[in-house]
Amino acid sequence: MTRQRIPRRREPPASGPASPSAVERGFPAFADPRLRGARSDVVRAALARQAQALAGNHAVAGVLARAAPVAPAPPEHFTGSELDAMLAASPFLSAYIAPKAAGGDVIAGNIHHHPHDEFVVRAVAYLQASENPKTGKVYTLDEANAFVKQMRGFHDRTTGQIHIDRDLGIHIADMHEAIHHYAHATWRSQAGFNTNEGVTECFTRRLCKDTRTPNPMQAYREQFLSAFYLAEAVTWEVLAEAYFNGDMAGLARAVEALDGDGTLADWQRAMEEGRYKDADAVVGAPK
After folding, report:
1. 252 contact partners, CB below 8 Å, separation of at least 6
2. Residues 6+ apart with CB under 8 A from 41
3. Integer Cα distance of 282 and 178 in angstroms
């Protein structure tokens, strides 16, 4: 499930001993629209070295800033095929997901973007068949109606289908739920809500980094931070083996080998009780 600040860009000042327009007059190549291409870095750097002697670093920096390519905004949502391609392109995640995809377990055909009202109906029905981590019982209708307000998507463990709020969710919800899709059944059966969401968010942000995808949502902040400390302590590979391939025993051994204050069970208990500092202490994370 997925629950959202986009940093404001600060434009560099345009003042200096020589104006950018003066540099452009002396070096008209800077104005060539082809320099806005993603592969023009080397050419622009060569021109910069030539211009520095005449115009100075400050003015050249201004021209380069204006000529630099602007990264396209991410789409509102990703298709299943696009998500499959992103997962395959991730140097880290592909090692765990590619074997599953090769066997036919892909996102294409299994992700659905619904209008908000339709999504709410589906999500409430799903929640009423799911355990509420706060009560240990299935969600009541009132509990489901309250919780669905913070949902942007969910992965149905029974059907393997991903459902996204087309109107309120964004592309990060697609990525987060795609990671959920590949969680091993053993992980799902042993990881509580906070543990599962925190680790899923870790791998979601890893996918964002690997594919250079902006992430304005930053979901599950506390759960993510504690899961991140776990990944750093036991290694990302050990955590991935547990999450994607079900090697919970290997993860437990790795936690026990740390100079922390407990076991994997202690870490999970602290996570599910919302005692994130205690969970961090188990893996020896900085206080």
Report:
1. 263, 264, 265
2. none
3. 29
Closest among 171, 127, 128, 180 to 150, alpha carbons compared: 127
Token pair for 236:
């990302």
The DSSP-derived string for 85-149 is HHHHH-TTTHHHHHHHHHTT--STTSEEEE-HHHHHHHHHHHHTTSEETTTTEEPPHHHHHHHGG
Q: What is the pLDDT of residues 4-49, one digit of tens each?
A: 443 343 433 333 333 344 444 444 444 444 444 443 443 344 444 4
Q: What is the pTM of this model?
A: 0.73
SS3 155: strand
CB–CB of 125/156 below 8 Å?
no
Can you tell me the distance from the alpha carbon of 157 to that of 138, in angstroms, rounded to the nearest whole number?
15
Contacts of 50 (CB under 8 A, 6+ apart): 27
**Cβ atoms of residues 147 and 125 within 8 Å:** no
Residue 167, classed as helix, strand or coil, is coil
- Helix axis angle for 221-234 and 264-272, nearest 10°, is 170
